[in-house]
Amino acid sequence: MDISTLQSSNKDNTEKRRKYHPRKMSSFNGQPRVPGEPTDTATSVLETVKSTVQGFGPINKIHQHLCAFHFYSHDMTRQVEAHHYCGHQNEEMRQCLIYDSPEKNARLIGLEYVISENLFLTLPDEEKRLWHSHFYEVKSGFFFMPNVPSPIEHKDMEKVCKTYGKVFHFWQVDRGDQLPLGIPQLMMALTRDGQVYDHLVQSCAERMGIDFEKERKSREYMTGPAHGVHPLANGGGKGLETRLREVELKSDSPTPYAIRASV
Question: For residue 90, what are the β-bridge partners?
Fold first, then answer.
């Protein structure tokens, strides 16, 4: 999988955002339908039995719900609301499962790794371009914890404001895909005013019960990375596109078509 660099002007991106209208899928209780038969009673019973005897250590470490907006790293006109369910690996790293909504039947669309500035600075320069800063997201109020009291939320956001994240989405729900099609897509985060669609912000604010302007003002005191946002982060200011490339398969064993079976 290649990460290719694309260059485009802010003017072009702004014009595209005005024209872009995501396709809609049929929905059930406000959530898009996924192809397939409904879960039957026998499967539900089995799930209940298995859940009582199996352990879910990695999932049980999830301790917070964060909401934000992502855009495709090669196309800012394609933007999605992303609900992160995160757990700490340690004080300097957390990992998050990303869903398209906080509802019970939400679709798992991606994942994000969040690391401290200290860890980010150890990365090779080519790797740094794949990571985005959280400084603007936090300061603007667009990165938030639904239903968490501000004093508690701000304690964690003070830390998140200094971090970097790496996101891949596997399910391109914005274009109406009913299943996760194609290759994983590198995503980026907002870095300045005027990038996110107003209708996405308004819809999120209404459903999640948040006042983004109030959040912005309450976070004015927060500070970003000690060394400032690294110039290579956020794609180094350029578009990055994920592409699949066919290569020779490396293997110590014979290739599949060279194997012969005898009876």
Answer: 93
